[in-house]
Design brief:
This protein is α/β, with parallel strands linked by helices and about 270 residues long. It has 7 helices and 11 strands. Among the domains are: about 80 residues, Alpha-Beta Plaits, CATH 3.30.70.260; about 100 residues, Formyl transferase, N-terminal domain (Rossmann fold, 3-Layer(aba) Sandwich), CATH 3.40.50.170. The N terminus and C terminus are likely disordered.
């Protein structure tokens, strides 16, 4: 459940400098206020042999998780570039996301999966996912947007630059775009289909959207100003990511700006 960041006290460790994996062993129980992850994109230019990997972990909160995960990476010669830990207060769960570089000759991809799985079993993890973008199959995604283009443009530029290792299957919008616009020319040039599906208060066209996205790995809402129903989310059954800037994604449903103002009023009271 998404909550106001300002109202949540959390324990969180975040870094963006290149650090050895063992350097984080002593940070397991530090306490921080909620903050953003400031790590830059992974860069393996320090050595042609090193490639980037990402590991996401979710388990019950106990002492020693960070140390074990970082030691796992260090033992194989890996180097952590960014590490983010999140533990909600009064909720005995642990979340982490680590970005690292490694030598695939010294740490084969199959062995990496087994090593993280061993840690997952040790801590009874609910989720342990490791991704090596240059070796793993690319995720298939669909992009949904409304009238404004800025979030979509940023996504497409990063995808074109190779910073987003995904396959964009289609772009769906409830607003029509002229064929001679920059967005439409870009999509046509790269073979990405564009689907104009106008919505009304009575009909959100969710059946048509579902048919287009059902085979994707997840959906990205690039400032899609419609509320997806619970039935749609249940039927889709996979992640839906909102990349809208600012605090708006922290407020579910209609009129998020009004919810922010109401939250500020409550904080003042």
């Amino acid at each position: 459940m998404m909550m106001m960041m300002m109202m949540m006290t959390t324990r969180r460790v975040s870094t963006n400098s290149s650090l050895s994996a063992t350097a984080f062993g002593s940070f397991t129980k530090w306490s921080f206020k909620s903050s953003q992850f400031h790590g830059e994109s992974l860069d393996s230019s320090v050595s042609p042999l090193l490639i980037p990997g990402v590991h996401v972990f979710h388990c019950p909160d106990v002492v020693g998780i960070v140390a074990k995960l970082s030691d796992c990476i260090a033992a194989k010669g890996g180097n952590i570039l960014g590490y983010d830990v999140f533990v909600p207060e009064n909720n005995n769960v642990f979340y982490s996301r680590s970005e690292f570089i490694f030598d695939p000759v010294k740490w084969p991809r199959s062995q990496m999966g087994e090593d993280f799985q061993t840690i997952a079993k040790k801590f009874n993890a609910m989720r342990s996912v490791v991704r090596v973008p240059s070796l793993d199959p690319k995720y298939k995604i669909a992009l949904l947007l409304s009238k404004q283009d800025h979030c979509l443009v940023e996504m497409l530029h990063k995808w074109q630059d190779g910073k987003l290792p995904v396959d964009i299957t289609c772009v769906i919008s409830n607003h029509e775009r002229a064929p001679n616009t920059h967005i439409m020319r870009f999509l046509q040039r790269h073979g990405i289909s564009y689907h104009y599906l106008p919505t009304t208060d009575q009909n959100k066209i969710e059946e048509e959207i579902f048919e287009l996205v059902k085979d994707t790995d997840f959906i990205v809402l690039a400032r899609y100003m419609q509320v997806l129903s619970g039935n749609f989310l249940k039927g889709y059954g996979k992640d839906v990511i909102n990349i809208h800037h600012g605090l708006l994604p922290s407020f579910k449903g209609r009129s998020p700006a009004k919810q922010i103002l109401a939250g500020r009023h409550l904080m003042q009271v």
